[in-house]
Automatic annotation (TrEMBL):
<dbReference type="InterPro" id="IPR021139">
    <property type="entry name" value="NYN"/>
</dbReference>
<dbReference type="InterPro" id="IPR025605">
    <property type="entry name" value="OST-HTH/LOTUS_dom"/>
</dbReference>
<feature type="domain" description="HTH OST-type">
    <location>
        <begin position="234"/>
        <end position="306"/>
    </location>
</feature>
<dbReference type="GO" id="GO:0004540">
    <property type="term" value="F:RNA nuclease activity"/>
</dbReference>
<feature type="domain" description="HTH OST-type">
    <location>
        <begin position="157"/>
        <end position="230"/>
    </location>
</feature>
<dbReference type="Pfam" id="PF12872">
    <property type="entry name" value="OST-HTH"/>
</dbReference>
<protein>
    <recommendedName>
        <fullName>HTH OST-type domain-containing protein</fullName>
    </recommendedName>
</protein>
<dbReference type="Pfam" id="PF01936">
    <property type="entry name" value="NYN"/>
</dbReference>
<dbReference type="InterPro" id="IPR041966">
    <property type="entry name" value="LOTUS-like"/>
</dbReference>
Length: 308
């Protein structure tokens, strides 16, 4: 069970502020039980004062690492060595690496290669390489203030996410399968390790999807499924207009791109994904009176189907 998974939380004090500690530990309750809590740094430094106050209160074990060499991050080395020791003892199911430093990218990849789950946590400045190496990556600023409006600088655009969700639903529909809300969440995290609805100001994935406007959610026996909204009435209006435009272009047909431009001029909010299609070409293929062929210049062109 998820709640039985054991995690080691390893914190790079050189790159993370003490203000995040409560958020970090609270977030990890979503994944399992913390069996190791260690923080790495030079505890003789006056800069560690704020962290020292948090150690006893949160039962975190400080690992002393003197900064013996200028320009060389000894803290990184100590954390990496400890992580590999824990990996070989096989006492944990996963690791939480808390840092905004790209130096831990290879460590995260190595732990995942060994079948361990890697939860990354860092500030918005964390490089993409480390984010992508983790199973899941969470921005600490989002955890600190989930009520803050706006989108985090590192978040994927909502348009991109909406297209990905549409593709998932269409793929399942081709296999006559319903799409569960859980499947959408899992597949988005697999594609974007730092995907988190809280980056967009939402507390739940269901609310995030509902407000996109393209999807309908249905709950049955505690299972939530997602499908494209039924836009059949407007679809007929769009189909009729597309046919009218192609008719007006004559026997030479109308280039696909020109038809798309004409449709968008008439219907400014027109998006093919709202009707269950991933491309405009697929949308046109759905219109019974039209067909898409290449013209003599090898450009995709839309013609009226000849009556049989």
């Amino acid at each position: 069970m998820l709640s039985d998974k054991k995690f080691a939380v390893l914190i790079d004090s050189d790159n993370i502020s003490a203000k995040y500690i409560t958020c970090i530990l609270d977030e990890m309750t979503r994944y399992g039980v913390i069996t190791y809590k260690r923080i790495y740094g030079d505890w003789t430094s006056s800069q560690m004062g704020k962290w020292k106050m948090e150690l006893l209160e949160n039962s975190i074990t400080p690992i002393q690492q003197f900064s013996n060499t200028v320009g060389k991050n000894a803290t990184d080395s100590a954390l990496i060595i400890d992580a590999m020791d824990l990996l070989y003892t096989d006492h944990v199911d996963g690791f939480c690496i808390v840092s905004s430093d790209s130096d831990f990218t290879r460590l995260a990849s190595r732990l995942r290669e060994s079948g361990k789950e890697v939860i990354g946590m860092g500030e918005d400045k964390t490089p993409k390489s480390f984010r992508a190496a983790c199973t899941v990556f969470t921005n600490l600023e989002v955890l600190l203030d989930q009520d803050e409006e706006g989108t985090g600088g590192g978040a994927i655009g909502k348009e991109v996410i909406e297209q990905d969700i549409t593709s998932i639903i269409l793929e399942n529909e081709d296999k006559n399968k319903a799409t569960g809300l859980g499947e959408i969440g899992n597949r988005l995290v697999k594609k974007y390790s730092d995907f988190d609805v809280r980056n967009y100001g939402y507390s739940s994935l269901s609310k995030f999807l509902e407000e996109m406007g393209s999807f309908e959610l249905k709950k049955s026996n505690n299972v939530v499924t997602v499908r494209m909204k039924d836009n059949r009435t407007r679809k007929q209006e769009l189909d009729d207009y597309a046919v009218w435009l192609v008719k007006g272009s004559g026997k030479n047909g109308m280039e696909l791109a020109a038809l798309g431009n004409g449709m968008h001029r008439k219907f400014t909010d027109f998006k093919v994904k709202d009707y269950g299609y991933s491309t405009f070409s697929k949308f046109v293929h759905s219109i019974g009176q039209l067909e898409v062929r290449e013209n003599k210049n090898n450009n995709k062109t839309v013609y009226l189907k000849k009556e049989e």
